[in-house]
Amino acid sequence: MSVTQSLPRLICFPYAGGSWHAFAPWQAALQGQLEVVAPELPGRGHRIGDAPFSRLPALVDWLLDELDAQLADDFSLWGHSMGALLAYEVARALERRGRRAPRHLFVTGALPPRHPRHAELYHSLGDDELIAKLAAMSGTPPEVLQDRELMQILLPFVRADFAVCETYAWDPREAALRMPITAIGGDRDPDIAIDLLHGWRDCTRAGVRVLSMSGDHFFLREHVAALAEVFTRTLARPLQAATA
């Protein structure tokens, strides 16, 4: 009798202002190799009616409840930018609570937690100023930014996401993680030099691998296949067969 194993699970967390749709390309690219799970955060998508979180500890608690059934078996975490911070703190919370820990943590487009963020508080800016910052980051289509009615819907959760990042304070007294970390950056990211990614070594006892890909802060959009290969080479395991 042949026994088919369940696929390793990759749980994904979005950048500020992002949603689960950001990971749809990898759900397709990794089909049959990894199970890709991407929760929708409050305040957007089908959760548009829910108040977004503006502080990281409360959002982590919510994610632990929301993902409870997924945080089992063979799973790893991936987050981009703000999502990397979420993934890291979810992993910390799981270890702190004695829960099953992720096999691997992938962080893309993200400074190490101990590194200071930009001095300007984006979540405190006026609407026009915040929209200008979003335009400069090149992560939001211009036609969306120019739609004032749509932006009035989007800005509350975008602002809350920036508050999550900008009010975060890393506690170095907590034990380092027990799983390895892969940190990946864009070689033209204006705010995150590749060399800075080595600082993630402060966050784990299991080692850090640093990779560089061509592109700016949103380089991941140009490297769906390359990132998929990183995930599969790191996480995929051969199917095992048992006979009876």
From TrEMBL:
- TM spans, by residue? none
Among the Pfam families in the record, one is Thioesterase
Q: Which organism is it from?
A: Lysobacter enzymogenes
Give the protein name, as stated in the record.
Thioesterase
Q: Name one GO molecular function term.
A: hydrolase activity
Q: Which PANTHER family does the record associate with it?
A: S-ACYL FATTY ACID SYNTHASE THIOESTERASE, MEDIUM CHAIN, THIOESTERASE
**Family, per the entry?**
Belongs to the thioesterase family.
Q: What keyword terms does UniProt attach to this protein?
A: Hydrolase
Q: This protein's superkingdom?
A: Bacteria
Record GO biological process: lipid biosynthetic process
UniProt domain Thioesterase TesA-like: residue ranges = 11-235
